[in-house]
Structures are given as C-alpha cells and as structure tokens.
Design brief:
This protein has 959 residues and is of the alpha/beta class. Helix content is 46%, strand content 11%. It binds a DNA duplex (12 and 17 nucleotides) through helix 12, helix 13, helix 21, helix 24 and strand 14. Belongs to the DNA polymerase type-Y family.
Length: 959
DNA sequence: CTTTCGCCTCAG
DNA sequence: CATCGCTGAGGCGAAAG
C-alpha cells in the first residue's frame, strides 16, 4: 500500500470515474473513520457526531478523571496536561504516514478481537429492506451497555453504504459486474495488497458481502489475509483463509476461483514428532456454503502449495509453538514429572497417615538411601533403539541433533572422551567423532520411572521422597536395623535391573547429605555406604564444589574469598561460622558450616511436615524461541501463557492470588543473535508481581493482569528473549475461596425497600456512565495515534506510569516509540517509581496541578473500599440471596450497583468485575426455583455480555 | 519491628 | 537443516508498612 493510495477508498477502476466518485468516497472515509490527512491533531479529526463544542464541555468536566473519557477526550486531556507541565508539543499526535499501515493493521487486529458481536447480528440478508433507525432491535431491553444495538446499527449502516456505493458505481459506469462473490461473506484481516479498501470495493461490486468485523465463527465464509499472527492462525483455522490474489484472480477471470489454490493456512507443519495437528481448514455445514464449495474445492490441490507466510522455523510466533516446545523440552518434562511425583507422594503420605496412624521407628539411627539411574535418558533411549544399542560399547547421547543442541544425557563410554551432559553437540562431536545421537523418548522414560517407583514402594521403607523422574531419597532406617544398607542397595539394584534392564546406583548414609555424596562415589552401577565412624575421612576426599546445593556461583565466591583455586571440604571446616554467615548470609552460611562437618538435618519424611511439601507456586518459563516484533504479538503470547497456566492450576486443583511476570531482555553487550539457535543468550531480567485481591485461575483475568504487568515493565519488544509467568500465593480450590461462593449461606433479613447501596463517594467525580457514553467510547476510539516520547518523558514519572496503564487499557497503540535503551529506561522508571518520598511528592503535585486522583483508591462500595474486595463480594452475596427470594433488586439499588459496575469497568478492574459477574452466575445455578430468578438472570447476562464485548481476552470458564 | 518484593541460585 | 535454555524452592537484601 503506497501512501498516495492510502487516502483513497479505491483506485482499481477507470481513472476518469474516480473523480466522479470522489465526493461519495470522501463521505465514506469519514464514516469509516479513516483519517485522510496526516499530521492532524487527533482531537480535531472527530467523527461527525461529537461536535467540537460538546467536546470542550466534556473536557472541562472530565478533567477530574479520565476513566470516563472517550479516547479523543482522553488524548486532548493528556495533551492539555502536558501543557500544564510547560511542554508545548502534544504528547499524542496523529501518526506519520509511514506508521499508518502498521497501526491500521494493529487496529484491525484489535477490532477483530474485541468487537465481536453475537452471531447473526452482523449479516443482514436483505439490505434494502432495512432502515437502521427503525430496525434497531431490542434497545428497550438493554439497560446495560447497549453494545448489541451499537453493533447492529453499525453493521446495518455499513451494509447500506456498500449497497449505495454499488448502485452509484453501476449507474455511473453503466456497467454490470458479474455476481462472482454471491453467497460469499468476506472479512479482510490485517495489511493486504491490494489493500482492504480496494478489496472491499471489488467484493461488493461483484455481489459479495463484506464485513468489517468478524463475528462468531460461521459468519464469514472467507477471510482474506496475507499475514496472520500465530493466535489468529489458530482462531481462523476453521475458516477458509485465502490470499487477496483469490479476489483479484476471480475478478479477472470473471469467475470464482477455487479457494484451495489460494489458501493461507496449511496443515502440513508441526507434525514432525508428535500429533500436534493444526486444524485443517474445515468445510462448513451451512448449505449455502457447501453448495459453493462444490464448485470451488479441488481437494487434491491442498497439500501441494507451499507455506506462504508461515515462519519458516519454529519460534514463538508459530501457532503451535507452545505445545510443540513443551512436547520436546527435556527440562519441561523433568520439571513437570517432578511436580507430579511430588504431589502423588504427598497424597499417598496423607492417606497412609490417615489409614494406619503414625509409624514409630527408631529415631536414633537414621539411614537414608539415595537411588539414581545411570545416565537415564541415554540408557533408556539406547534400549528402545531398533536394534538396541550396547551402551557399554558405543558412545551415545540423547539430543535433538544440531550443532548448538544440548546433550541431555550421554553414556559412560562417551564420558570417557570428555563428553558431558549439557554440552553442545558440536563440542561433544569434536571430543568424540563417533558419538551416536539418540532421540528422546519421553513416554518410555515415564514408563521406566513408574516401574522404578513401584519397586521402591514394594520395600518396607519408612518414606520416599521423589527427587526426579529417575531419582529418589528413601528412608530405610527401620529396614537397616535387620539388614546392612549395602545388602538392601544390592537388592534394589538387581530388582530394578531385572525389571528395566537399566542400572541404578545407590548411596547411603546417616543423612541426606551423606547419602547424596555416597551416591556420587557409587556411580556408575555401584553402591556405597558411608559408615558411621568414617564420616570425616570420607568428607576429606570431597571437593567443596561437590556438595549438594553448592553451585558455581557460591563456589567461586568462596574461592575468591579464600584465594584458592580448588577448595576441599576440609578447607571449609577451618572457616568460622560467622565468617561463612557474613559471606553467604545466616542460613546459607550455617548450611555450609554444617555440611563441612557431615551434618544435615534435612527431613525427607513428607508425613512429618506435609505443609512443607505443598506446592507454593506454579509457573511457566519460555526462554527459547522468543523473538517478537510487535507488542500485539507479545500480548497474544501472554494470553496463551495465561491459558496454559490456568490449565496447570486446574490440573493441580489450585487457585492463586498473585501473578508475576518475568522478562528476559538481551544484554546490551550481547549479540542480537546468540550463538545458540533461537536461544536467549546473555540477558537482563526484570519481574513484576501483581496481587489480585482474590483467588482465581481464570485465564482471561490472568491474561489481563499479565498484559498490564508487561506494560509496566516497559521493555523493548524486539529485545525480548524470555518470558516467564508465575502464580503465587496458592490455595486449593474450594467453593468458598474461589469466588466467595458459599452454598450454605444463611439468608439475612434485609429490608428490600431500603437503599442497599450508599452513593459511591467517587460518584461525583466519576461522570455518569450512560450506555450511550459507553458506546461512544467504543465507536470513536481513535486508532491512529503516536506518542511523542520526547514530551512523554518530560512528564512526571507517576503520570507516565498512569498514562501507560491507561493507554493500554484503551488498547491505544504504544508501539513505535522512540524508546531509550532498556537499561536507562528501567533505571529512570523504577527509581522514580520506587522511591516513596518522590512518589508522594509527585502525587501531591498532581493533585494540585490537574486534580487527578487515582480512581482506584477512591472507589468504594457501600463504604467498603474496593481494596477490601472480599467484603464487597460478601455484601453483594447477601443482596443477591435476599432479593432473589423476593421481588428482585430494588430499582434504586440496581442503579447504584450498575454505577459501581461501570466504575469498575472504567478504571480497568476487569478482574473484579469478572468476579462479581461470576459470583452471580454461579449462584444462579442453585436459584432456579426462586421468584426473581429470571430478573437476576437477565441482569447477570447483561453484565456478562458487556464484559464479552469489551473482551479483553477470552473470559471463558476454564475449569 | 515484620512483611513483601525483586532478584539470584541451585538441581535434575 | 536449525532446536525445544524448565521450574519450584529457598535465601538474601532492600523497601514497604
């Protein structure tokens, strides 16, 4: 799309007629909200229905709070604010033409996401018979939001304009256009060539139906796109997604071309290893469409075409990236196996505790056993080869296979050449040219592991603590009263080998430390017991770095401190306790001090302290394949992560009340492309945590919060190399803690005619939120804007912070910034933000200067500030319970409640809004027989509808 | 003073 | 071709309250 054509609705047809069409098109432009001039102050490019005077009045009254402004008001307000700070340029201006395409595309995406209407609303079959003013359906029923009405109206108007245009053009050109696209309902997504306006024109002139918004699935018959984000690819996987060429060729041939020749999404990707199929473009059941497809479907053609715009390699933009990544990541498998094992053994411990009471055993003489497979992955993979490989002869390793691919595990033959686990394949091949690479076989590892644990449990042991899929700590104190630990270990080794043909090594001692160290001595394929009297002798042979919990960092720190290159445990023993504590802190210091003496009081008995073995966090880390270009892509990715996190929480039957986002960005000195393929390289890390105020695991709410945190962290998109999210402050799901639902809620005697709700104190400064007002906010959202970062950066940081939040909330573009280097930005931003004194000062200034107060802190409900949200929920619960049993809520109460809900909406407290809606939804399920059921259902449905229309993300129930 | 938050470290 | 650098626990120091 070149910039001169950008201002024209279309330039496909004869040039002399274009002049004739110009007036008509200009009108279209303003209605389609297309900015025809660059460098125009946003505030002055208002769509017709908000006139200038009206807006000025609004601006004055709204200056106390921007939550209720529509976007143009907001932008004007911000610019005015910048003047107050002595800045003479606007903060937000219209964009330059070069940015227009990009923003237009982003806006398109946002539109498609957020503005989906109900199925059936968008497509009106007989355009001529419709008069939008009369047809506006159901408006009297919609007290809330009125989004339906708005969308219907908008769609009707657009269809009508299309019709007008077609008639006008046909008349003007005296031409007939073949009805090529009859029965086609077409949606154009993103940037295309020819651009959306030209395609629009071609489609409607040839009897097609063009839709501006993608409704529920099934509405559109075709989607035109050249580039799709991964998320869009998934969303559109049930549509016929074709390139614009399909339109152009069809028009040229005056005949509908087979869509299969132009399809954009192919399904021959991502199935290399596992069955992660991308859904193929499916046939739809609509009779109209199947009729159409009979003509247009040469199925044999589908697989011949090449991918047009799929990323030619797997990275985070690929629709199947996450499942694929997790399916192939060894570290992911290790972590999830460990979590599963831990919870399984915790459950087991709790139930055995119940069934047989606490078992007493000799506490004086402990024997701990540490069992571990020898090069587990390598051994198992070698055994499952066809024919099996003799790992005692052939050097093997398990790896994905590539120069910079990690070696997950290598056998002892390979280790003799110097190969090590974690080494890159390239280095290992240099050491051992004959190295044989084996594939991962995660299923088999799991199977062997199960056998292993079954064997361990078949012994009369005191407790088992899983360390890993192939490794466990076992308390054999009772058994070793009658049997020497070495005999027990030999027996275990034999049993495991017979069952799996894999060798395990065993180490034992009087505590976990000694057992671990003994195991190291036993490897490979051996058993070693540290006798009571030989602890010090044994320890003297151990290096400091070999102690468990002592990694490279701690080791080198102490080496520097002691001016020695290799530290032995006996060297450590000479260091006084407080010196260690001063170097490493009290805890770590004490641990090291004790370890040097062979002391370790780590308890592996789950029963003794089940709390300690409960999960305290659930997280997802992706630090491979992260390469983004746009914030939108990151936000999509965060949504996907939120869904995955939600799934994992559900799996663990847990909910959480605190989310953390951690981002890794390329270190300024590190190369753009790190040595490892799609790796993260050297990175800087930032993280931010958000308290949710209530327990949840709802994917949409988590997604919102994560996107907010993402904006707060304010990193440069292209520098992102890793994304981690984590849910903390976990609790098991119960009816009570999830949404404040309590089935045994007693009915309290309230007077239904009394005002249930006090006026919200903030109500005066929060201008009224009428449905029209909300609709306006939606309609006149102005996509083309750009932040002038020079000016922006001059604003007080507190204002900057709020602005970022607000811009994000409004889905206004904050990309394309003239960003400063991550390091500098981070420093400025956080230093200012973190300092309490400075923050206070800024806030005072703001209060004086602009009368801006943080809406969040002001909002209360029945005099309960929303910060005490649980109490608000309790209050609402009472209100619901009482009124549903009588005549329903009092009108005045409902007004006040609606106002409160709008306020939540306006300050972006979507999580809380959602919690309230769901509280009602869940209560409704048990209230079918109550008199006011229907009324409450209607109220709840409207609340939910409004939420869905704004659709920050899918807020579907995820349980 | 205690609690919370961000960040680091380790293991497999 | 590449490649799948996860994840939970615990500790420390600074800041928040």
């Amino acid at each position: 799309m070149d910039s001169s054509a950008a201002t024209e609705w279309g330039s496909v047809g004869d040039s002399e007629i274009d002049l004739l069409l110009k007036e008509h098109e200009n009108r279209k432009n303003s209605e389609l909200n297309v900015n025809t001039e660059n460098k125009v102050q946003i505030a002055s490019s208002q769509p017709e229905s908000v006139d200038a005077t009206q807006q000025d009045v609004k601006l004055e009254s709204a200056s106390q709070d921007w939550g209720s402004m529509d976007d143009s008001e907001f932008i004007s307000f911000v610019n005015k604010l910048s003047q107050n700070y002595g800045l003479h340029q606007p903060v937000i201006t219209s964009q330059t033409s070069s940015d227009q395409e990009r923003n237009a595309e982003e806006d398109e995406n946002v539109d498609g996401d957020k503005n989906e209407a109900e199925p059936g609303d968008l497509i009106i079959n007989d355009i001529n018979s419709l008069d939008p003013e009369e047809v506006d359906p159901g408006s009297q029923e919609l007290e809330f939001g009125d989004y339906e009405k708005y969308f219907r109206h908008k769609t009707l108007k657009q269809q009508q304009q299309d019709q007008e245009y077609v008639e006008f053009t046909r008349k003007a050109r005296n031409l007939d256009y073949p009805p090529i696209f009859q029965n086609c309902v077409i949606y154009v997504n993103g940037k295309t060539d020819p651009d959306v306006r030209q395609l629009h024109k071609l489609i409607i002139l040839h009897s097609g139906k063009f839709i501006h918004m993608l409704g529920a699935k099934g509405n559109a018959t075709h989607i035109i796109a050249e580039n799709l984000t991964p998320q869009k690819k998934l969303e559109f996987s049930n549509y016929k997604v074709v390139t614009p060429k399909w339109i152009v060729d069809s028009v040229e041939a005056k005949k509908l071309q087979p869509w299969g020749d132009y399809m954009l999404i192919h399904n021959d990707y991502g199935q290399r290893r596992l069955d992660f199929k991308i859904e193929t473009t499916k046939e739809q059941d609509d009779p109209e469409i199947s009729q159409l497809s009979q003509v247009t479907e040469p199925d044999d053609n589908l697989h011949k075409r090449e991918d047009i715009d799929m990323p030619d390699h797997m990275n985070c933009k690929h629709p199947n990236f996450l499942p694929n990544f997790f399916a192939n990541s060894r570290l992911h498998h290790l972590s999830s196996w460990k979590a599963d094992l831990k919870s399984r053994f915790l459950q087991r411990a709790i139930s055995t505790l119940r069934s047989r009471g606490h078992n007493s055993r000799p506490a004086d003489k402990n024997v701990i056993l540490h069992v571990d497979f020898d090069c587990f992955f390598a051994t198992v993979s070698a055994l499952t080869c066809n024919p099996p490989i003799d790992i005692n002869e052939v050097p093997v390793c398990v790896t994905h296979g590539g120069n910079t691919s990690d070696i997950a595990s290598c056998n002892y033959v390979a280790r003799q050449y110097g190969c090590k686990n974690g080494m890159w394949l390239r280095s290992a091949r240099r050491l051992c040219p004959n190295l044989v690479c084996l594939d991962y076989n995660f299923d088999e590892y799991e199977r062997i592991s199960n056998i292993f644990y079954e064997i361990l449990l078949s012994y009369d042991i005191d407790s088992v603590l899983p360390v890993s899929v192939d490794e466990a700590l076992v308390d054999i104190s009772s058994m070793s009263a009658s049997q020497h630990p070495l005999e027990i270990m030999k027996d275990i080794k034999k049993k495991v080998y017979n069952a799996t043909k894999c060798s395990v090594s065993c180490g034992s001692g009087s505590n976990v430390l000694l057992a671990r160290l003994a195991l190291r001595r036993a490897k490979p394929d051996g058993a070693f017991h540290v006798e009571e009297g030989h602890v010090t002798d044994f320890l003297d042979t151990i290096k400091f770095s070999e102690l468990p919990g002592i990694g490279p960092q701690i080791c080198s720190k102490l080496e520097n401190e002691m001016q020695k290159t290799v530290l032995m445990v006996k060297d450590i023993r000479k260091i006084p306790k407080d010196k260690l504590a001063s170097i490493f802190g009290p805890k770590t210091g004490a641990t090291i001090y004790n370890y040097a003496r062979g002391l370790d009081d780590t308890c592996i008995d789950i029963i003794k302290n089940p709390e300690a073995f409960q999960r305290k966090s659930i997280s997802i880390d992706v630090n491979w394949g992260i390469r983004f270009d746009k914030d939108v892509e990151v936000e999509k990715f965060l949504s996907d992560l939120a869904k995955e996190l939600s799934k994992r929480l559900a799996n663990a039957k847990m909910v959480g009340s605190s989310v953390t986002l951690k981002l890794a960005t390329r270190h300024p000195d590190a190369p753009i492309d790190p040595p490892k393929y799609l790796g993260m390289g050297e990175c800087e890390f930032v993280s931010k945590t958000s308290r949710l105020g209530h327990f949840t695991r709802e994917a949409g709410a988590l997604g919102n919060e994560l996107r907010y945190l993402y904006r707060m962290l304010n990193v440069a998109v292209k520098e992102l190399r890793g994304v981690s999210i984590s849910m903390n402050r976990l609790s098991f799901e119960t009816k009570k803690n999830v949404h404040g639902l309590d089935a045994d809620q007693r009915l309290l005697p309230l007077n239904p005619t009394a005002k249930t709700f006090d006026p919200i104190p903030a109500a005066k400064s929060l201008p009224e939120s009428t449905p029209e007002r909300k609709a306006n906010t939606k309609i006149y959202r102005i996509p083309e804007n750009e932040i002038n970062w020079e000016v922006f950066n001059e604003l007080p940081t507190e204002i900057q912070d709020e602005l970022r939040h607000e811009l994000g909330r409004r889905h206004l573009s904050i990309t394309g910034s003239l960003y400063r280097s991550p390091k500098k930005r981070k420093k400025d931003f956080f230093n200012d933000f973190k300092s309490p004194t400075k923050r206070k000062l800024v806030m005072d200034k703001v209060l004086v200067d602009s009368n801006y107060v943080e809406a969040k802190s002001r909002l209360s409900f029945q005099k309960i500030p929303i910060t005490r949200f649980q109490e608000v929920l309790d209050k609402l619960k009472l209100w619901f319970d009482y009124t549903i049993r009588s005549d329903g809520p009092h009108e005045m109460d409902l007004d006040l409640f609606n106002e409160f809900m709008f306020s939540l909406f306006e300050i972006g407290e979507m999580t809380k809004y959602d919690s309230i809606v769901r509280l009602f939804e869940e209560k409704l399920i048990f209230s079918k027989s109550h008199p006011a059921y229907e009324e409450w259902k209607r109220i709840t449905t409207e609340l939910r509808t409004m939420l869905n229309e704004v659709k920050y993300d899918d807020l579907e129930f995820n349980y």
